[in-house]
Write a structure and sequence with these properties.
- The protein starts with a helix and ends in a 9-residue tail after the last helix.
- The protein is flat and about 70 Å long.
- The chain is mainly α.
- Helix content is 81%, strand content 0%.
- It has a single domain, classed as MetI-like fold (Orthogonal Bundle).
- Helix 1 runs antiparallel to helix 2.
Length: 234
């Protein structure tokens, strides 16, 4: 194990960096996708509800590895059939799209649940003050909902981080792919995968601790912000 760390520590750290970059990029785009389809799901338009529901159900029903293969191999093939023979998707772009689409479906449900957790009376009060639906959602509902959603978003970040290992099948040089390369070069599978597992564990446990700390902080702030009940004799 020490010999692996001495020879491949730089490559492993670089691969971990690639993993984190892919995860962050995917989560950023997933939040945009999730917000769009969550707003569709909570809107009063039946058509938008159907579109949002179909996207969430369809993407969640497709395994991530199949989605990755479709984007990395299928989409360029479709462009070649249309005459764009030079079109190719690098592994980073294909992996980001696949992860963002997959994570976006779950983020849509997180955003929807967060929005619906806010008292409906706040929207009614905002509208009665003359604010439009969009302004009320942007300035009143979403800031409160986002505060509630932070722990769930961090948990989804952890899930997405672990899902990056699936993208080793399309050749993206993330941590699992690098572990497979090192194990093949050194014939020390046990030690290699132990190191890779520990690296994943350190990052994921740190994020889990951060999520729990943020959740406790939110609960404390909410309890402090609630008005105290007065005694009847006051």
């Amino acid at each position: 194990m020490i010999s692996i760390l001495q020879s491949y520590s730089t490559m492993l750290l670089r691969a971990l960096g690639y993993t984190l970059v892919l995860t962050v990029l995917a989560l950023i785009f997933a939040m945009i996708i999730g917000l769009i389809f969550a707003l569709m799901n909570v809107s009063h338009s039946r058509i938008l509800n159907i579109i949002g529901t179909v996207y969430v159900d369809a993407i969640r029903g497709v395994p991530l590895i199949v989605l990755a293969f479709f984007i990395y191999f299928g989409v360029p093939q479709a462009f070649k059939m249309m005459g764009f023979t030079s079109f190719r998707l690098p592994a980073l772009q294909a992996g980001t799209i696949a992860l963002a689409m997959n994570c976006g479906a779950y983020m849509a449900e997180i955003f929807r649940a967060g929005i619906e957790s806010i008292d409906k009376g706040q929207m009614e009060a905002s509208r009665s003050l003359g604010l439009t639906y969009g302004t009320s959602m942007k300035c009143v509902i979403l800031p409160q909902a986002f505060k509630v959603m932070i722990p769930s978003i961090i948990n989804q970040f952890i899930i997405t981080l672990k899902d990056t290992s699936i993208l080793s099948v399309i050749g993206y040089p993330e941590l699992t792919n690098m572990g497979r390369t090192i194990a093949g070069n050194t014939f020390l599978s046990l030690q290699t995968w132990a190191i890779v597992g520990v690296m994943y564990m350190i990052v994921i446990v740190s994020l889990s601790k951060a999520a729990k700390r943020i959740e406790r902080k939110i609960k404390i702030e909410d309890s402090e912000g609630k008005p105290r009940k007065r005694h009847r004799d006051q």
